[in-house]
Amino acid sequence: MSKEVKLTIDGKEVTVPAGSLVVDAAKKVGIDIPIFCYHPKMEPAGMCRQCLVEIGRPAFDRATGEPVMEEGKQKINWGWKLETSCTNPVSEGMVVLTQSEKAKKGQNDILEFQLTSHPLDCPVCDKGGECLLQDMTLAHGSSESRYRFDEKRHAQKHVALGESIWLDRERCIACGRCVRFQSDLVGEAVLDFDMRGAKSEIVTTSEPGFDSVFSGNTTDICPVGALTTANFRFGARPWEMEATASICGECPVGCNTMLDTRRDAKSGGKVIVKRVMPRQNEAVNETWICDKGRFADFSNADRVLEPAIDGKAVEWTEAIGAAAEKLGAAKGDAVFLADGSLSNEDLYTMKVLADAAGAKAMLYSQVGGGALTTKSGSYGGSGAGDVILVIGGDLYKEAPIFWLRAKQAVDRGATLIVATEAETRLDAFATTVVRDLAQGLEAAKKAFAKAENTAVLYSGDDALAQSCADLNPKSLIGVWADANTQGAWEMGYEAIADLSALKGKTVYVAGGDLLVAGAVEAADFVVAQTASMTEASQKAGMTLPSQTVSERDGTFTSGERRVQRFFAAVQPMGEALPGFIITAQIAEKMGVTLEGVSAEVVFADLAEKVAGFAGLSYESLAVVDAEERLSIGGTCYENEQGLGAQLSAVSTN
Amino acid sequence: MFYMLLRHRDVPDINQIDVYQKNGGFDALKKAIKMDTTDVTNEVKAAGLRGRGGAGFPAGVKWSFMDNNNWPHYVVANADESEPGTFKDREIMESNPFQFLEGISIASYAVGANAAYIYLRGEFWEVAHFLDEKIEEMEKAGFLGEKIQGTDYSLKIYTHLGAGAYICGEETALLESMEGKRGQPRVRPPFPPSQGLYNKPTVVNNVETLTSVPYIISNGADGYRKFGTEKSPGTKIFSLSGNVNNPGNYELPLGTTFRELIFTHGGGIPDGKSIKAIMPAGASSSLIVANDEALDTPMDYENVRNVGADLGSASVIVVDDSIGLDWLINKTMSFFEHESCGKCTPCREGAYWMHQLTKRIHAGEGTKEDVELLKDVATQVQGKTLCALGEFSTMAVVSSIERFPEDFEAKV
């Protein structure tokens, strides 16, 4: 327990841990000190000077160390200067004034400086409506400028920093958040300032430009409209959009996101996803998401819109009946094949049907060891004394936020062992790098012996998974290809890595394009439950259109075994249905009664039957923690929809 | 005239190691490394030596702030000398280099540093090469390197060139630059003696400060205090420039009056003009009205304050009555706009804004309101910037408008 410090801010008493900054202590009692360069996830820089306040400190006699008294109270010493609340740690008995005449004048003075050469092109600025500078100007700024309009500095307004990020140099207020995010937090110093003084400008120093999978986050933390994303630029105004909580489906990290949607003329008047934004969850993605998730494809090109038999469109009832008939006839030769793109509800429903039909429920995964990973927990908070082994894969490509958290664990003092055949971007931060997996296991064995918490993130087959499990780490995390592969292991799916084993079978396949293509190639007859129209899905005996993550409610289980909810953000395309409803309808025709309406009810049933989920419900997954909320000063969403829940450990046998 | 620092003016070829040694060179170092390190620091403290870079902070006190729970320690000599009108460190380094290097060695010994760096502005590359040669000569003579003079103490001195940015004279920006980063000031605290170069305890002293140290060790605090005043002891090099007959460096005891410097040593104002204003601290200076009271003010850290300026690095710029101060502050603002590092808002935007206004006023296109606004903007910058540069940029502006209003009334 760190020491607590008591101080007074604008007459309110607040107690915070020693070392806290004045700006954060103020936030705790509901006082928002204006900020630009400060970000709670980064070291304070004290650059923008916006957070100036008056700070008084109790007086002590220099010689004796005794408190200096004045009118029965300890005297407070006030400096002649205002001080930045983002760089000053709290101290016992400190008195802070954020609203005094002097403090307010100081804040307004800085604001006036910020605005002298700002273009004030809010009407065409993407950030308009969610801009810190705009908010602060409206709240505190003067409506008249003392700066001559024709003397404003001009700069380039359309600078492509990289493929995904555009820079408007006129709007930039040189707070350095983006530069510090890349160099300090991510450890990829691909942005920097060039020139000096009023000519200071942001440049990218990498080739190709802005070479970082975390680049999109800089547009969130940019307090003005200087950095914007290529995919959302001039796309919509923030207030026109509706935000729906979701979980990123690109990898097993399970980043909490928001889907910002709007009715769009270009899409024929449909409500579509205009942008993907991070949603705070300190246990998963903090306030970040990677570019894979942010720029994920929500275009809905080539969707399956209606059920089809032999490529001919049919009614749902006919399709359901035919599918049930085929699967029923195949009996034990029927295979229910899924991948990790399905929700827990879909997987559970399919598994129950497979069991009832005496058929096999199989999970396609190139990464093995699913039977071993049901003890895993989170490793995100790792720090000094902890050891992390990353083996067999490149986290930067496979699961970027896992990568970022491994890097940050090192910043906090954790030991990181990287064992991969090829070089990876994690090497630069690792304590030990070996280019041989066996050596990596050996190094981890030694390091684990002295460690407090241990975690292994592996990408490889069953044998590698077993070797990793033999190290007996606290968390054994498979870096799966899909968002919910872990969920399928929890349900007891059997692993299949080689689809040629499907020869001669009747297969009900549900999942991504790769899996459907493989099944169509290998099996005798395929019923494909899929969202996308591909060459392979058209060749399937039957195609059943399923809804995507953005169109329905459900849950995913992350690689760290955290179950989290996502919500329907847009209307489904065509006649597509959620996977579990399709499966339940087929089941009914086969004489098995399953829940086929509400995802919540399916989950309740699942929680009763699947060991790790015991005690969980949609309600418990929706719990939030108000304490977690930070003064972010950016466009990352606060979490009001639920932090999800960690699955309990299941003993393996 | 007595030379404690500019000894080459008395002793020809003192930049040759044998000549330096024959004239008592390295005696102080030999004495110091046999002393207890705390005694060395205490002697400098007792001498009351104040930092010659501008701030006037007592050097010995600074040394005693070094965090002894965090090692290694470093000493950095600030040879950035970038204040307009300051040209004293260059003369020391070019002409009396060994005394400077000896001073670094004694300071390093006192704080337990085994590596010291001389940070020179980029334009001083010739000086840096020259110092490199002198460092090598000292190593060969056993005054630097491993086990100096048979003791257990070892020291390496390195020169390091900046790229010629004014801000790198600010000690934390200097440290950033030395670390290979952009030369921008750090938030203080922590101060360098607790976290400096590479976050290790570091003493940053000006060239002139360090060059004063050997004399203190050889002659004791009392010997040093024979010069200067009670609170500002010792001699100081005054870099005299501007509208004066004999510009140049003058080493005089602190407390010498402006009148003596400008008229006795500097030979007065040329072309029969009369003195109008004095900038005692280069471009960073407030302008003093050069009346009799000011001219008779002793130049030391306390008394210059009484006439509304700071002694700073004592780069005394003389302004005669033919100069319009609208022209002068347009010059200083041009300088500060160019040299503002851009890290903090008030300095970056304030310097730019002020320069727009001084340009306009000097061109005769300004109004009375512009002059008021200029003063207002300058005042608005004060007390809010990350480092002193921003503060300095306002000094000449505010003092000119307040003390010489007629110059501006004539332009609007």
Overall description:
The longest helix of chain A is centred in the first third of the chain and has 16 residues, at 101-116. Chain A is of the alpha/beta class and 653 residues long. In chain A, α7 packs across α16 (579-589), α8 (344-356) packs parallel to α16 and α8 (344-356) crosses α17. Chain A has an eight-stranded mixed beta sheet with strand order 18-17-29-28-27-19-20-26, with helices on both faces. In chain A, strands 1, 2, 3, 6, 7 and 8 form a six-stranded mixed beta sheet that branches. Chain A has 18 helices and 32 strands. In chain A, β1 and β2 form a beta hairpin. Chain A has four domains: 4-111, Roll (Ubiquitin-like (UB roll)), CATH 3.10.20.740; 117-229, Alpha-Beta Plaits (2-Layer Sandwich); 308-358 and 486-611, Rossmann fold, CATH 3.40.50.740; 387-479, Dimethylsulfoxide Reductase, domain 2, CATH 3.40.228.10. The mean pLDDT of chain A is 95. Chain B is α/β, with parallel strands linked by helices and 412 residues long. Chain B has three domains: 7-224, 3-Layer(aba) Sandwich (Rossmann fold); 235-320, Ubiquitin-like (UB roll) (Roll); 325-409, de novo design (two linked rop proteins) (Up-down Bundle). Helices cover 43% and strands 13% of the residues of chain B. Chain B has 17 helices and nine strands. In chain B, strands 6-5-9-7-8 form a five-stranded mixed beta sheet, with helices on both faces. A four-stranded parallel beta sheet of chain B has the order 3-2-1-4, sandwiched between helices. In chain B, α7 links the parallel β2 (113-120) and β3. The longest helix of chain B is centred in the middle third of the chain and has 18 residues, at 207-224. The mean pLDDT of chain B is 97. The A-B interface holds A 44-50, 52, 80-82, 84, 87, 106, 109-110, 112-114, 116-117, 146-148, 151, 153, 173-174, 176, 192-193, 195-200 and B 165, 182, 187, 337-346, 348-353, 356, 373, 380, 383-386.
